[in-house]
Specification:
By secondary structure, the protein is mainly α. Helix content is 87%, strand content 0%. It contains 9 helices and no strands. It has helices spanning 2-31, 37-47, 52-76, 83-121, 124-130, 135-173, 177-187, 190-216, 221-251. It is elongated. The protein starts with a helix and ends with a helix.
């Protein structure tokens, strides 16, 4: 048992060390202006435009479920004037950023791990090194920049979709449209919106680093690529949830 615990501790330290090394190398290339603009734009389309429908649909239905259950109780207790503001704060601070990060991790993080894992097990990554092209510069930097830029933009769409979904079901249950909108204007602040968006900068960093690292460490053929893809998604989602807690405490403490 102690041996197994020791192996897990060493694996965790190895994971953290890899992530820090990749991040430092990426930052070195970015500071020097070596970002690979064409590859970065391609990855922005994959991480952003291609993820837009699933992000919008996910938050639309989450907002509808929230509106259905919460508004029903608000109407019952005569507190409908608080529904819009409470919903907007919850979506802007927590639901929008966190769920957007999870959706992108499942879709984009898995794609990063699968693509880079396939390149690793077929020796294409080694071939880049033989051509004097650093794999971190060629493969990781564009994906890192794309996730950091596109995730905040996707979060804005996610927030809007969640509010629309809550509005649709809340008005059906009995909350008046004017009351819903005026409550949002009264209670929602810029700190709520910008604080939630700021979280996604960190989430984008997590998704790109974990997905790329797991792909570059893939071994043993197709089965190894599958394991790398699964671990990339699981680790990204767990880290997003854990990081979200600490960011919430830091940003919305007062």
């Amino acid at each position: 048992m102690l041996t197994a615990i020791g192996h897990q501790v060493l694996a965790g330290l190895d994971f953290v060390g890899d992530q820090m090394l990749i991040l430092v190398r990426c930052l070195g290339y970015i500071v020097r202006g070596r970002i690979g603009l064409r590859r970065t734009i391609q990855q922005m389309a994959i991480a952003g435009a291609d993820s837009l429908p699933i992000v919008a649909i996910t938050l639309l239905f989450v907002g509808m479920a929230w509106g259905w259950h919460t508004a029903e109780y608000m109407v019952r207790f005569g507190a409908t004037s608080y529904f819009g503001g409470g919903t907007a704060i919850a979506i802007a601070r927590e639901l929008g950023p966190a769920l957007c990060g999870v959706v992108v991790a499942a879709r984009v993080g898995s794609a990063f791990a699968a693509e880079l894992g396939t390149m690793t097990v077929t020796d294409l990554v080694d071939a880049l090194g033989a051509l004097a092209v650093n794999p971190v510069y060629f493969l990781v930097v564009p994906r890192l920049i794309a996730c950091i830029i596109m995730l905040p933009l996707l979060t804005v769409v996610a927030d809007a979709s969640g509010l629309i979904g809550a509005f649709m079901l809340a008005t059906y249950v009995g909350v008046s449209p004017g009351e819903y909108l005026s409550s949002i204007q009264q209670w929602l602040t810029g700190q709520d919106v910008y604080g939630g968006i700021a979280k996604t900068l960190v989430f984008g960093l997590i998704i790109a680093l974990v997905g790329c690292r797991q792909g570059l460490r893939a071994t043993r053929g197709a089965a190894g690529v599958g394991r790398a893809t699964i671990s990339a998604v699981v680790l990204s989602i767990v880290l997003i949830y854990a990081t979200n807690l600490f960011l919430t405490a830091a940003i919305f403490r007062y």
